[in-house]
Amino acid sequence: MKGRRENLKPCSRKRPPNRLNATKDIMNLQVVKTPTLPDAQSVTSVTHWTDTLFSFRVTRPQSLRFRSGEFVMIGLLKDDGKPLLRAYSIASPSWDEELEFYSIKVPDGPLTSRLQKIKKGDEIILRPKPVGTLVLDALLPGKRLWMICTGTGVAPFASLLRDPETYEAYDQVILAHTCRMKAELAYGAELTAALPNDPLIGELVGDKLHYYPTTTREPSQNEGRITDHIRSGQVFETLGLPQWTPTEDRVMICGSIALNKDIMALCEAQGLTEGANSKPAEFVVEKAFVD
What we know:
This protein is α/β, with parallel strands linked by helices and about 290 residues long. It has 2 domains: about 40-130, Translation factors (Elongation Factor Tu (Ef-tu), domain 3, Beta Barrel), CATH 2.40.30.10; about 135-285, 3-Layer(aba) Sandwich (Rossmann fold), CATH 3.40.50. About 25% of the residues lie in helices and about 25% in strands. A 6-stranded antiparallel sheet has the order 4-3-6-1-2-5. The relative contact order is 0.14.
């Protein structure tokens, strides 16, 4: 018995945790930065195009799914801690890993007066519930897709112009953008110039894309309102395209209230009818604005 006891190993007992070491471990844990805003997304880049126009990109919520051309509510917190939100079209296509927005700068605008000051690393509020009528699903099949806009109304079309589905659905795509000054056309001009050489969709774009910029307060190659160019037939003659017909042409409209009404009337005069997500037709118009 004695020998057997000598061969027995001492009973192993776990030592109680060292509270001091545990405290040190907790202190050494990396602090994870948490968002300070509800539905917050981080700004990744900002581009100021003019004194009155800028674009910015933010991180994309993992759960966000949208159709190119839709808009979401974005904004900042007011001084009283309540969110101030406005509808902004997403300018990036549905496949992009980030979200891009294109905005005006209004000195006394409740939101844009503050939004124009954002910089990389800042946060904005983004409600991930996309909606909108400027989507391909709201139009019947056709041969030509016209995108007509003023100012920052080009944003949803920037999304659609970078979506392969647009060029798969139409033989020709026309962006008609009206601004006051030539400098205000830079965002759309740079986008359309780069698309044919884009490594992702350049082959699909090919020679399908037509760009027709006009200015209303500065002399340019296409001076005047786009509505006047449509009425006179100048835009069709310049681009070598036929007048609108219900069987072949589809129109998307995004701009000032005046532009929307005028283009809608021109569409209806040519026999085109307004469509919606629930009932696709020949033209659609977006009625969401920012200040």
